[in-house]
Design a protein that fits this description.
alpha/beta; five-stranded parallel beta sheet; 336 residues; Rossmann fold; binds adenosine monophosphate; DHBP synthase; globular; binds magnesium ion
């Protein structure tokens, strides 16, 4: 299959592909999504094949109007209304008990469905010209999520009908995922909408233990995606906690062959290994925006060791920590 690269004024072409049961990668404000008609089980099944995604890992359904939520779920509780009004369109996914029209491929056999209303106008237009779209991140399973059309093309060329080039994603990490299907709201994945913002909007929100720690053996994952290896570059990632000066000293005394550092912009001049800059130390949003491109870049360069700062676990830093701790196999090197 030849993969077309479409411009943002060719969305009708993309909508036609979706309506005929094909796959289109679309830009969103979080990361690029690999979209199919969410109500067409056969089309959705192709997503799993194209990505090499395990069939038991459910997909997020993307809508372009709050009213589309009603047909996808059994009921919309008060807290879901509050979150939708406050954070949609935006990087928040809400899980609710699913309605009967959700194909088993989307929910992966669960009784719930994950729904998001993206703020990216290209994604919105594609949904309006076609239908609600089931879309996971448009990367091959196991590689970092794509934040540009060229990342998608590197992974998906020949596997999907088209990718719409909408430039770089603004947020750069996948959406925040919260489930309202249990007694107390539970954060399953941190993202651009922060835990602090969610608590300010609806009160108590439990942080699922799998956000920060490895899933305990024998325990079932609240979000099936958590049990799979994720966000791992080929290099061995060493996550380092400590002040800037200690970070530099550690890296400079461990400059083995093939070693490089993911560093803050300010640190380039004090490091003696090749660096990939991820934004200013104080700017966590810039770091989120650059993280996945940095990991892909490290892969292309063929580095074997990658030293990185351990992010703070607050604000969007919690999302960075959640991704980086997985890339590092849950190990942190603590410096004085
Ligand atoms: P992605 O694979 O990047 O699209 O991320 C989707 C995430 O949402 C994965 O971690 C899924 O396991 C999770 N997810 C989607 N639907 C559900 C659901 N109904 N219940 C729990 N987690 C879900
Ligand atoms: Mg993904």
């Amino acid at each position: 299959m030849k993969t077309q690269i479409l411009k943002t004024d060719e969305i009708q072409k993309a909508a036609d592909i979706i309506k005929s049961g094909g796959l289109v990668a679309m830009p969103t404000e979080t990361v690029y999504g690999l979209a199919a008609d969410a109500l067409n089980g056969e089309a959705v099944a192709k997503i799993f094949k194209a990505k090499g995604r395990p069939m038991d890992n459910p997909l997020i359904v993307h809508i372009a109007d709050i009213s589309q939520l009603d047909m996808l779920v059994r009921e919309v509780p008060e807290k879901a209304r509050i979150l939708a009004e406050k954070f949609w369109p935006g990087p928040l996914t809400i899980i609710l008990p699913k309605s009967d029209i959700i194909p088993v491929e989307v929910s992966a056999g669960l009784d719930t469905v994950a729904v998001r209303y993206p703020s990216d106008t290209t994604a919105q237009e594609l949904i309006r010209l076609s239908c609600p779209l089931a879309a996971p991140s448009a990367n091959l399973s196991g590689s970092p999520s794509p934040t540009s059309a060229s990342h998608v093309y590197d992974d998906m060329c020949g596997r999907i009908e088209a990718v719409i080039d909408g430039g770089e994603c603004k947020v750069g990490v996948e959406s925040t995922v919260i489930t309202l299907a249990g007694d107390v709201p539970r954060l399953l994945r941190p993202g651009g909408v922060t835990l602090e913002q969610l608590r300010a909007a609806i009160g108590e929100v439990i942080l699922d233990s799998a956000v920060l720690d490895p899933l305990e053996e024998g325990k079932q994952a609240a979000s099936p995606g958590m049990k799979y290896k994720h966000y791992s570059p080929k290099a061995d990632v060493k996550l380092i906690k400590g002040p800037e000066k200690s970070f530099a000293e550690y890296v400079n005394s461990h400059k083995e062959e093939g070693a490089a550092a993911l560093c803050y912009d300010e640190e380039e001049s004090i490091l003696e290994v090749p660096v990939i800059k991820v934004g200013s130390a104080a700017d966590q949003e810039a770091q989120a925006n650059k993280l996945f491109a940095a990991l892909r870049h490290a892969d292309k360069k063929g580095y074997s060791i990658l030293y990185a700062h351990c992010p703070e676990k607050n604000g969007i830093g919690l999302a960075l920590y959640n991704r980086m701790i997985r890339a590092a196999g849950f190990e942190v090197i603590e410096l004085e």
